[in-house]
Structure formats: C-alpha cells, structure tokens
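Contributing: when you submit paired examples, paste them exactly as shown. First protein:
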Amino acid sequence: MTETQPIVLIVDDEVVVRDTLDALLSSEYQLYFAENGADGFALAVQTQPDVILLDAMMPKMDGFEACRQIRAMPLLAEVPIIMITALDDRDSRLQGFRSGVDDFLTKPFDSYELLARVQTITRLNRYRHLVEQRNQLEKAHRDLVISYDKTIEGWVNALDLRDNETEGHSLRVTQETLRFAKAAGIGEEHWEAVRRGALLHDVGKLGIPDAILLKPGKLTEEEWEIMRKHPVYAFQWLSPIEYLHPALDIPYCHHEKWDGGGYPRRLRGEEIPLFARLFAIVDVWDALCSDRPYRPAMQENEVLEYIKDQSGRHFDPALVEIFLSLRQPV
C-alpha cells in the first residue's frame, strides 16, 4: 500500500459488506472502515478521503445524518459520497440527495459496477483537485508577478524622486518603446521583457553618487568614468533575479552604439541585443525632446533629423527607418 493510493472510507455496519469491499478495493485503494455513522464522520475528518462509501441504515447515526454532517465540514464538503443501501424507494433516494449524496448503489450490488463507479468518481475528483491546484498556482503566480512589478515601479519612482531632471522619463520611454517594439514585429511574448527593461533602464544610476548624478554642469572625464558604470551596476543587481533575466538587455546595453563607440562593452552592430537597439533610439528621442537645466527641449523635427543623422553610427539603420515612420504625422 502506497501513500499515492486514493483513500476510500467505507462506513457500513455489516461485516460481510466491509469484507467484500475490502477484497474488491484493497489492491487499488487505501481503505478505512467504520461501523456506524458517528465513527464514519469522525474518521472522515481524520483521513480526508477521496471517496466515501456510505450505508444508509446504521446504529448511532444513520447514513443520511452522517452525510449532512460531512457536508457541513468545509474540508469535506466536496468529497464524493456513494450511498450503498438496501433502500431502493424514491423517497430514500430523494432524502439521500438532499443530504448530499452524489450516487447510489443498491444492495446486493454488482462488484464490477461498484468498482467501475469508484474508479470513475475517484478519477474525476482527483482531476478536479488538480484543476483547483493549478488555478491556485496560477493565481499565486499572477499575484507574485504583480508584486514584482510593483517593486520595479518603486525602484523607478525612487530614481525619479532622486533625479528630478528626468521625472517621468522612465514611464514615457516605456510606453514609446512598447509601441516601437510592436511596430518592429516583436512578438507579444516579449512585450513584458521590453516593458520591464525600459522601466529599469536607468536603475543602475542608484549606485552613482549624488555629486555626479545631480551635478548641474559638465562632468569631468573621471566623473564620466563613474557615470558609465551604471549599466554594469544594473546588470550586477538584476542578474540574480531570475524572472528579470529577459529584461536585462535594455539596462545593460542601451548605451552601446551601432558603430562600437558605446559603453560598457563597446558592442557593435547586431552584437547589441535587439531590445537595447530599439530602446536606445527612444531614450535619445525623449531626452532631446525634454527640457533640461542646461538646455531647452529641441523641436520634434530637429530631434528626428538628429536620429536620422546618427543612423549607422549610434543607431541601427533599419530600426531608425521604422522609428521615423512612426513619428510621421497621420
């Protein structure tokens, strides 16, 4: 007998019936026996059976009352109950159904029919449990993903609060990058990775000292060396988080350039991950279209001319064409 065998609780005051069911079911099921309804109810609470075979007429507590009490227990309310009884009249069956019985077998029962009924109802009940467990796991997964995404949004908000100059930048570039990705033919299965990567693109700047990140003037070469580490910081912080692995390309590689002149790894051309190549165009477009303390926002047509000029140098030429087509007036 193994722990994986379904549990069958047999509640019947007749020894011959219990012995018959024992011989018929013991090879496939883990069996428990009770001789009356009261003991059967107590054993049901203890064993949490997969199916209950219940006699109707028993001492101390009949099968109908035992069924009502079983159904009143939340953990037992869905357990299938087959009533095996010599009562074969309409009123008894109605009473049984009202008490919560799922099926009836009349004594004397056919052994093969009983075995078939138990096998079928046990399989159905196990399947129902599996479906419920799967639904619970899926809900737990959805809740966990929502929690993770709220954490990401918290990181982004923290960065925006720290660097007022770029407030709202992360949300704007995220929306535009998703639009761009769809236009570029990126499949729906990748949209979450693009969205998370865009939101987190500058998270590494949390590791840059305020004196450098918030400096109003130009950075020295030494300060630029520190600033250029923020993609590496992002990779170091995010890579241990498995569910963010598909989103890493943008935070790590969005400062790489098509001609190999970017950082941190001086990747060139299609060595640069596609999501990062997409995002780099949007990032520069939003930055140039936004006011900064050291310069006013550029006009949209000037920004697009700059992006076109950087095709093949900073940006992927094929993606530049798609992006420019998206910015054309309708």
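Second protein:
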Amino acid sequence: MHWLAAALLGVVQGLTEFLPVSSTAHLLIGARLLRFDDPGGVFTVMIQLGSIVAVMWLYRTKIVHILRGLPSDADARHFVLMIFVAFLPAALAGALLSGFVKRVLYTTPAVIAASFIIGGIVMLVVERYRPPATVLNADHTSLARALAIGTCQVLALIPGVSRSGATIVGAMVMGLDRPAAAEFSFFLAMPTMAAAFAHDLIEARHRLGTERALEIAIGFVMAFIASALVVKPFLAIVRRSGFVPFAWYRILAGVVLVAALAMGWF
C-alpha cells in the first residue's frame, strides 16, 4: 500500500506542478487522504526532482542553445538575466520565511482552502480584465516585467496559491499573452524548484535512509512521467480556452475543502 500511495502521490506531483492549481496543496491533502507518513517531508522533497528533470528534458534543445550562445549571443544573455532577475524575489523570501511557512501554513488546511478560492477568483478577473498582450514571446520579456513576475511568485510560498498560477497571472497582468506567460512560468520553474529542492534536501539530509528508497524511487519516476506528459496538453488548453477551467477547478476544490473542514473530515 505504501508503494501504491507513493505512485499516486508522484502522479499528483507531476500533474499539478506546472498547472495553476498548487502541487503543494494537492500533495498535502493527498498524503492526508492516503494516510501516507512523510517524516521531515523527505519523500515530497525527493519527488519534486522528478518534475524538475522532466521540464528540463522537454526544453533541453532550447536550454542547450542558450548555454552555447552565452559567450556571443546577446539574446541568450538577456534570457538568462531575465530568468535570474525573476528568480531572486522568491529565493530571498523563501530563505527568510520557509520555516514559518512549513510550521504554520502547511499545517492549516483552512489556508489552503482560502488560497484555492481567492486564487481562482483572481484568475477569472485577470482573464476578463487583463491588459492587451504586447509580449507574444517569453524570450522578449523585459527585465522590469521579469522582476514583477518574480515578485508575484513570492505569493506561492502560501500553500494553495500555486507557483505557476502566481507567475502566469502576474505575467498576463504584465502584458504577456497566455502561451508566453505559461512558457515563462516553465522556465522560471527550473531555478526556483531546483533551489527549493536543494534547500529542503539540506534540511532533510539527516532523515535520508535506504529503508524508504523504493517509495522515493517510485514517486520520482511517476512525477517525471506525469510532468512530461502534462505540459503540451496544458499549453493546448491554454491556447484554446485560457485559464478559466483551472480557475473554476480551484474554486470548486476550495469549496469542497471548506465543506470537509466544516464536517470534521480533516
């Protein structure tokens, strides 16, 4: 049963990491429902690496092209600087606030429920009233816009907000069209998730052991597969329907969670 739970949680991590629905919230809720014990969050930390590797694999051609172009290509240097500038706010906030977030917010389901509902409403409002798109290619995002998007990412420290949701909504407010906003979010996820993984791994290093290695391996593989499979269909939905379906999903999930809390199920 532990192996099945590990596989299911790996799928949840992979499917939700790059969707604007909060992978952290889904993992916290899923672990409770499955009665999956994760001392020190070691399992959660390790399977996040599966999603990181998956998105890097999907964009491997572009990553290699950018790295090769750094010495001579101004566009490549701008791209790296753009992502670095966007990464900084969340990196600083995470270093300062991660302890409080994990001790208090991660253990408060009401925070997740409120974040689901408020985030969904914000997405609906932005979809309806966002400014006209002036940036159609994520590579052409200015440093000022990148910093603003990165500042929005700080909100993702709150479980239920969603890292991808915060960055995508921020990017649309900053004038990126939907596909460009989603792609910017994917690239910003690489350093952000890698840094979060490294930070959490250092904190959990003393709890690592061989006794749960198989559970971690199963979760990692399932997270990798699910993440690799979800990105292209997600972009297709965004181009066709925007983010409205995800907004309503968030609101519905939040209402269900509020009802579950009111009935004492959590």
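If you have annotations for the second protein, write them as plain sentences, like these:
The mean pLDDT is 88.
The first helix runs from residue 2 to 16.
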